[in-house]
């Protein structure tokens, strides 16, 4: 289990992270979200032992994270961190040996992953000769080649086409099944919804939202009503509780500020003979994120 307990980080007088706490069990994928400058990278670096903690405590399976523990951590950074003049094999051996593997074991595992990602022919090619997407594949392989206990994925799908995104998803879900602790960070909220059971959102280093994703969505009072009907748009927009009305082809989305307004809107629409759809849906994580982050910036 990874435990982050009341962690704060100052850079001189600037507080980058403020009293952040969360824990992740084996086999869980946890979302760590925030806009640029929210404190995510600083939090990652403290978890990996690359930055000292000003206040608080971080442990992995009950042990403070230091050089005796860091070999159990894998990190896929948003930025490229490969050596461009090295071949894929040379890069893998360099990284794998640093993580305590033998060259023979590194090559064996590399071959398995190259086959899984359909890039076996790149084994002896230099990193600089690979496309951005294939470099991302190699960077991902290197982050997991030592079978880490904890894996941090920061924008893992950057530069990937939809087919390769599906390949990554398959491997990530397998790692989850193998009990890897995974922290997942992305600006693509649909990916967070796909993978994560729990999450936190940081704004200016502080947590503004946390918990199980399902509960966060059910507790969020704003809802969306999907409607297919011949309705009076101006009348609906003026209805109490309606935040906005959007139309896509023949379907309307009525955004309401509280679930308590569903019945009154249903009553109003029931007078229309043309209603063929009326479905109340939870808001997307993207909507919640924009609302919560925007609200915090306005304070």
CATH topology of the largest domain: Rossmann fold
Order of helices and strands: EEEHEEEHHHEHEHEEHEHEEHEH
Residue share in β-strands = 25-35%
CATH superfamily of the largest domain: P-loop containing nucleotide triphosphate hydrolases
Alpha-beta content class: alpha/beta
Instruction: Give the second-level CATH assignment, the architecture of the largest domain.
Output: 3-Layer(aba) Sandwich
- Portion in helices: 25-40%
Q: Provide a count of the helices.
A: 10
Shape: globular
Specify the CATH class of the largest domain.
Alpha Beta
Which regions contain 5 or more consecutive residues with pLDDT less than 50?
Answer: none
Mean pLDDT across every amino acid position: 93
Number of separate structural domains: 2
The rounded Rg comes to: 23 Å
Reported for the largest beta sheet, the result is:
6 strands, mixed
